[in-house]
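User: Here's a structure from my thesis project, written as structure tokens. My advisor, Dr. K., wants to see whether a designed sequence matches the one we expressed. Can you design one independently, without my sequence as a hint?
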């Protein structure tokens, strides 16, 4: 594995991280035994930048991770998030539950204690506001998060899916180490303003869903997704968009194979090639995929590769919106 400094922290994290959400939420049935084996294998592979959130499985993901985190605390850089809640604190934020954003200092105080208890650690390495709260000035949220740094409960701060304006306002209150936003071949919104701004401010951009939630791997059988799989309700997995995206993924896979790598590796390498300040967190709950994804660290794309990839995306432009109205309302424009 190769390592890279997380923005201005002196911390070396693996150039390919690990998204843990799918182990407990969003993508069908959990298999805790394989998930724990995957976390342990991540240690063997040197993947030390792990991502979770309080809302993934309503705390179940943090509890699962604690099994491997606690005995290996010094080997793992753990990131978690707060700010999504479910009305009545019941149900699933991804499917069916009535979710809302609460990034108020009052909720953050409870959320951080809950995360520390579930993770069974004393300090969270990187603590993100999962979304910027439309009802709370970002200065208040980040001001409260900065108190947690002073108290030693968290080490570094991050924002997820923030606007450039929010990021500037937040940064004026306390240094922001990482911005986590969706970024993949199929989701390129950050290229307009967030990516340039993170470069300017010296912040790490952590692309989530770098595999387009599995779509770009050309291995996802959409017809067999479980009934509670979050992707079933997303526009890209339906109708004309799905048709476009399957053709795009098939062409991408063919190109990847001609370069002797898997489509997943090619897609992760593409994200990493976009800027030096990028550290993606591909998600998996399987050792097999984890090992494959780790291989992306050694893939260097040429200018010709990048051109060939762009040509495929141009050929299949009808990708569709990344979210349905339900999820879109949590993303500030
Ligand atoms: N900040 C936010 O709002 C936000 C939102 C979404 C996600 N995230 C974070 O970002 C992480 C990554 O995103 P994501 O998991 O949603 O999407 P992703 O990384 O784009 O894709 C995950 C999907 O790809 C599949 N996959 C992984 N490696 C593969 C391979 N080599 N070949 C074929 N399929 C492969 C996984 O299958 P299996 O599940 O079967 O392994 C899973 O279905 C999450 O785990 C979470 O920590 C953050």
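Assistant: Designed independently from the structure alone:
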């Amino acid at each position: 594995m190769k390592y890279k400094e997380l923005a201005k922290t002196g911390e070396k994290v693996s150039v390919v991280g690990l998204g843990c959400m799918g182990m407990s939420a969003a993508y069908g049935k959990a298999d805790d035994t394989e998930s724990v084996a995957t976390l342990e294998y991540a240690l063997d592979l040197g993947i030390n930048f792990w991502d979770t959130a309080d809302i993934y499985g309503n705390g179940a993901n943090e509890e699962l991770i604690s099994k491997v985190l606690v005995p290996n605390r010094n080997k793992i850089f753990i990131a978690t998030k707060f700010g999504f809640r479910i009305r009545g604190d019941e149900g699933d934020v991804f499917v069916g539950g009535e979710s809302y954003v609460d990034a108020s200092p009052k909720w953050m105080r409870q959320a951080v204690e809950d995360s520390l208890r579930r993770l069974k650690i004393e300090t969270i390495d990187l603590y993100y506001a999962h979304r910027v709260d439309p009802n709370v000035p970002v200065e208040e949220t980040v001001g409260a998060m900065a108190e947690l740094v002073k108290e030693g409960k968290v080490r570094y701060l991050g924002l997820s899916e923030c606007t450039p304006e929010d990021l500037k306002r937040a940064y004026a209150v306390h240094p922001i180490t990482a911005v986590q936003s969706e970024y993949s071949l199929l989701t390129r919104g950050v290229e307009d303003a967030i990516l340039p701004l993170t470069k300017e401010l010296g912040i790490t951009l952590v692309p989530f869903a770098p595999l387009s939630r599995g779509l770009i791997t050309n291995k996802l059988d959409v017809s067999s997704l479980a009934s509670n799989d979050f992707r079933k309700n997303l526009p890209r997995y339906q109708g004309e968009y799905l048709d476009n995206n399957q053709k795009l993924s098939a062409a991408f896979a063919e190109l990847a194979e001609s370069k002797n790598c898997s489509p997943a590796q090619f897609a992760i390498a593409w994200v990493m090639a976009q800027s030096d300040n990028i550290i993606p967190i591909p998600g998996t709950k399987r050792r097999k995929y984890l090992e494959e994804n780790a291989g992306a660290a050694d893939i260097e794309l040429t200018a010709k590769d990048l051109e060939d990839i762009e040509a495929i995306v141009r050929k299949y432009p009808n990708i569709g919106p990344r979210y349905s109205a339900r999820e879109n309302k949590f993303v500030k424009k």
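When you compare it with your expressed construct, this may help: The mean pLDDT is 95.
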